[in-house]
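Re: [ENG-882] Designed sequences occasionally contain unexpected residues at chain ends

Forwarding the minimal case from QA. Structure tokens:
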């Protein structure tokens, strides 16, 4: 069940009230049907980027299924809507749930984004852990936006690969733009899962489970990549807290879309 708040033209991603099992079931259903279907696992960073960039906010809400990747997002949703969500739906973990179910159904998976090294290691991980999943294609990120001709070629290759699922690891918000803009063009379930590529490839360490449970994953990642993430976390997390307090104090009944 999605939620958004649109007063004063403030667009917020319409998060779904799902868990790992229900979200992965939805994704598998669309994948088997080869339905053009968009998924994003969005944490605080993506949420705040979509608020700061309203054009991004509008585009993101074209995505069919947005799940609360971060614990702070889950806490905020529970606080506003009394959802009782027991856990976040973390992109790397959701990826494993989807791959496990795809393995049972002998589905095809296409990997889009990241570096050649990461993609090769991630492909090896999938082949080892989920032997019935066929990696039907990989696409190394250009680290720029594709030209119109390149994009048409990418779409052709993905569709001709018979992919049921396209895992997209381009970083937020580039991956969300890509998924939203390829709905109706790519005949597969497209999942923007960010760091799942690096985590499962073993090229980036994950935070200990206790830090993840308590919403401290950002602190671990800041320790690992201080130069790249310092500004993102200190600025973004502060803005998230301020906006949460603003909503709590002044908008006691946030808009509920359905």
């Amino acid at each position: 069940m999605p939620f958004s708040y649109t007063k004063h033209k403030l667009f917020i991603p319409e998060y779904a009230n799902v868990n790992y099992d229900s979200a992965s079931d939805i994704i598998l259903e669309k994948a088997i049907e080869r339905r053009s279907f968009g998924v994003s696992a969005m944490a605080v960073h993506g949420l705040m980027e979509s608020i700061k960039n309203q054009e991004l906010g509008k585009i993101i809400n074209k995505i069919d299924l947005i799940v609360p990747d971060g614990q702070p997002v889950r806490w905020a949703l529970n606080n506003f809507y009394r959802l009782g969500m027991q856990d976040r739906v973390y992109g790397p973990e959701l990826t494993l749930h989807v791959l496990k179910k795809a393995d049972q159904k002998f589905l095809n998976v296409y990997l889009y984004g990241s570096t050649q090294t990461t993609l090769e290691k991630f492909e090896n991980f999938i082949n080892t852990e989920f032997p019935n999943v066929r990696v039907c294609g990989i696409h190394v990120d250009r680290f720029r936006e594709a030209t119109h001709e390149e994009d048409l070629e990418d779409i052709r290759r993905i569709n001709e690969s018979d992919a049921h699922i396209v895992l997209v690891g381009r970083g937020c918000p580039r991956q969300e733009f890509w998924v939203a803009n390829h709905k109706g063009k790519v005949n597969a379930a497209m999942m923007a899962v960010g760091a799942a590529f690096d985590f499962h490839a073993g090229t980036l360490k994950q935070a200990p489970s206790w830090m993840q449970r308590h919403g401290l994953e950002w602190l671990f990642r800041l320790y690992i990549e201080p130069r790249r993430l310092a500004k993102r976390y200190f600025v973004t997390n502060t803005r998230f807290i301020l906006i949460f307090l603003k909503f709590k104090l002044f908008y006691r009944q946030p808009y509920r879309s359905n």
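QA comment: On inspection the terminal residues look reasonable. The beta strands are 2-3, 15-16, 37-42, 65-68, 108-112, 134-139, 165-168, 189-192. Proposing we downgrade this to a documentation issue.
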